[in-house]
Design a protein that fits this description.
Layout: H1 3-11, H2 21-30, E1 32-36, E2 41-43, E3 51-57, E4 60-66, E5 69-76, E6 81-82, H3 84-89, E7 96-99, E8 103-109, H4 110-119, H5 121-147
Antiparallel strand pairs: 1-8, 2-7, 3-6, 3-8, 4-5, 4-7
Helix pairs in contact: 1-2, 4-5
C-alpha cells in the first residue's frame, strides 16, 4: 500500500477525518506498518500500552479474561482503531487482541498519538466520542447479559 493509499485509509477513520492532508501524510509516514499471521497477538490483556493500532486489512478478535475463561467481546475489521484506552489512561491493556485472519495494521506510538491530540483538539473530541460509544455499547451488552440471568 502506498503512502497516498494509507492517507486515504486514515481519512475514512472518524478519529482522523478532520486532519489536513499534510498531517495525515505525516501520520501515515510515522506509523509503523505491521502484519500478523492468523492466531498471533497484537497485545495481551494486562500489558502496558505503548501504541494504538488501526486495522488496515483483515480481522482481529478482542478477548477478555473472565473467571469462566476467555470471552470474545468484539471483532475488529478494516478502519477500526484499538489500543487507545491503555495509552490514554496509562493503565494495563483491558483486553487481548488476536489476529483472526492475516492482519495488517498501522501502529501509532503513544508519543505520536499524544502529539496529534495536543495539536488537533478536534481529534481529542473524536476520541471521546468513540470511547463514549463503546461505553454505551458495553452498558447495553451488560444489561442484556444480566436480563438473561
Amino acid at each position: 500500500m502506498s503512502l497516498n493509499e494509507e492517507v486515504e485509509l486514515l481519512r475514512k477513520i472518524p478519529l482522523f477525518s478532520k486532519l489536513e492532508p499534510s498531517k495525515l501524510k505525516l501520520l501515515a509516514f510515522t506509523s509503523e506498518r505491521l502484519t500478523y499471521e492468523a492466531g498471533h497477538k497484537l497485545f495481551d490483556q494486562g500489558d502496558m500500552g505503548d501504541a494504538a493500532y488501526i486495522i488496515v486489512e483483515g480481522e482481529a478478535d478482542v478477548l477478555v479474561n473472565t473467571p469462566k475463561g476467555e470471552l470474545r467481546v468484539a471483532t475488529l475489521s478494516r478502519n477500526d482503531f484499538v489500543g487507545e484506552i491503555a495509552i490514554l489512561c496509562d493503565v494495563p491493556r483491558t483486553a487481548t487482541v488476536l489476529a483472526k485472519s492475516e492482519l495488517v495494521t498501522l501502529r501509532i506510538s503513544k508519543e505520536l498519538f499524544f502529539r496529534l491530540i495536543a495539536e488537533f483538539p478536534q481529534m481529542a473530541v473524536e476520541v471521546m466520542r468513540e470511547l463514549a460509544h463503546r461505553l454505551e455499547q458495553t452498558t447495553a451488552d451488560l444489561l442484556e447479559a444480566r436480563a438473561g440471568d
